[in-house]
What we know:
Blueprint: E1 2-6, E2 15-21, E3 25-26, H1 28-36, H2 40-47, E4 57-61, E5 70-77, H3 84-98, E6 105-109, H4 120-135, E7 155-159, H5 163-188, H6 196-204, E8 212-216, H7 218-224, H8 227-233, E9 241-248, E10 257-267, H9 287-301, E11 307-317, E12 328-331, E13 337-340, H10 347-362, E14 367-371, H11 376-381, E15 386-390, H12 393-406, E16 410-412, H13 417-420, E17 430-431, H14 440-449, E18 457-461, E19 467-468, E20 478-479, H15 484-494
The structure holds ligand BES and zinc ion (ZN) (2 copies).
Amino acid sequence: MNFTFEALGIDSKDALVVFAGEKLALSNSAxxxxxxxxxxxxxxxxTAQFEGKHGSMLMMLAPNGIDASRVLLVGTGEAKNxxxxxxxxxxxxxxxxxxxxxxxxxxxxxxxxxxxxxxCGEAAARIAEGxxxxxYRFDRYRTKESENKKPTVANITVATSSAKDxxxxxxxLSAVAEGVFLTRDLVSEPANILHPESxxxxxxxxxxxxxxxxxxxxxxxxxxxxxxxxxVGQGSERESQLAIMRWNGGEKGDQPIxxxxxxxxxxxxxxxxxxxxxxxxxxxxxxxxxxxxxxMKALAGRKAKVNVVxxxxxxxxxxxxxxxxxxxxxxxxSGQTIEVLNTDAEGRLVLADALWxxxxxxxxxxxxxxxxxxxxxxxxxxxEHAGIFTDDDGIASGLSASGNVVGDKVWRLPLHEDxxxxxxxxxxxxxxxxxxxxxxxxxAAQFLKRFTNDTPWCHxxxxxxxxxxxNLPLSEKGGTGFGVRLLNHFVEENYEx
Length: 497
Ligand code: BES
Ligand code: ZN
Ligand code: ZN
C-alpha cells in the first residue's frame, strides 16, 4: 500500500472520503462536495438518517457534478472525543469498507477539526496508520482466491493542511507498523514452516535493520546449564534455539532495558498431551517471542534512542521416546531444580532459563517477559486485556497508560508469597504446576519471579490477545500483533532521551 500526503482538495477521479461531525456537521471538503453535487450529499445523509456519529458511514456512488467514482462520508462524532486511537479506528474502518470495492486509489480529505486535541498533521497520519494496520492480510498460502475477494486498493492519498507534518509523523508510524506486521507474519506461520531454527533465521534478517543478532544452539545452552529450557525441546526433532537481539540506539554504556519472549513454535503439551480439538491453535504459542521480535523491528525501524536487549527461547514441545516425562527433575541455569509435574506447563520452563540468562549477562534496568503462558488468563480476562504481573508500580502504571493510548489493554493481577507457596515441592526446589490448583496465571508468574534474581521485572500473559477469531478494529481475524505498539509507546514515553 502506498501512502501520499498532499494539500487539501476534492479534485479526484477515485474514491473520495470526507468527514462529518455530530449533528451532520459537514467538513469543508464535504461541504464542497455537497455544493458541487447540488446538495445530493446532505440529501443522501438525511435520507439515510446519517448524523455523523463516530464510525458511521454513508456511501454515494457515481455522484453527479464531481469526477469521483464514489463518495464515502464518515462520521467522526464529537471532536473532543477524537484521540490517536479513535482516528486509527476511522482509518481502519475506511479501508475495511473499501478494500475489495474495486477501487485502486482512495483519496481521504482530512480537514482541520476544531476542538480536537490531535494536531491536524498528526490526525491525518493517524488515520493513515489505522488504514495501514487494518489492511494487513496473511495470504501467503492462498492460491485460489476469487477475484472479487482480493484487495484492490493500492494507493491512499491523504489530503491535509499540514502535509509535511503528516508525512513526518507517518514515517515513524509506518516503521512501527512494519514491526506489527512481522509479529503477525510470525504468529500466523504454521509450525511446519516456523520451527526453532527457521524462526532463528527470520530473526537473523533483523541485522539488515541494524539489530545485532546472536543465536545459541543446544550444545551452547547445555554448556550454560539451561536444563530447564532444554527439557522442553528434547522430544522434538528440531533443535532448540536461544536468540539474542540487541539494538543500541542509546548512549554507549547506558544500562539496557530487556524483553524476553516465550517461543514455543508448537505446543502439543508433550507427554501430558493436549486434547486434539483446537490443538492447531498452539502454532501461535510462540506469540511472546513473535511480539518481542516485532518490537525490535519497530524500535530499530524508527531508530529509537535507547539500548534494548531482547531474548527469545525457541523450542518445540513434542511427545516422543526422548521427551521429558511427568515427574522428571531438571536443573535450571540458576541452579534451582524443578520437578516437571506437567509437561504442558512448558512456557515457564523456557522463560526460567531465558530470564536468568538475561539478567546474568546484561544486568538490565528491568525485564519484561511476554508469553502465551496460561489458558487461565483467558478465563480471567477473556480476549480484551492481557494480564500483567509486577512488583514495580511504575512499570505497571506505565504499561496500563500506554495500553490505553494504543488500544492494547493490560490489567494488573497480583503477585504474593501466599501464591508462591503453591509451587513448593517435596523432592525439588519447586514444581512447575501449583497444588492445590487455582490461580493458574498467578502461580505461573510466581514461578517466573524465582528466576529474575530481584531484577525489576514484569510478566505479561498474552495468551488471550495474540490471536483473534474475529475482526478487530485494527486487525483482521488472525494474529493481532498485540503488544508491539504498546511496548513501543511505553519505551518512547519512559526510556528515551
Ligand atoms: N500454551 C499454553 C497456554 C495457552 C492455552 C495459550 C490456550 C493459549 C491458549 C501453555 O503452555 C499451557 O499449556 N498451559 C497450561 C498450564 C497448566 C498445565 C498448569 C494451561 O494453561 O492449561
Ligand atoms: Zn503447554
Ligand atoms: Zn505453551
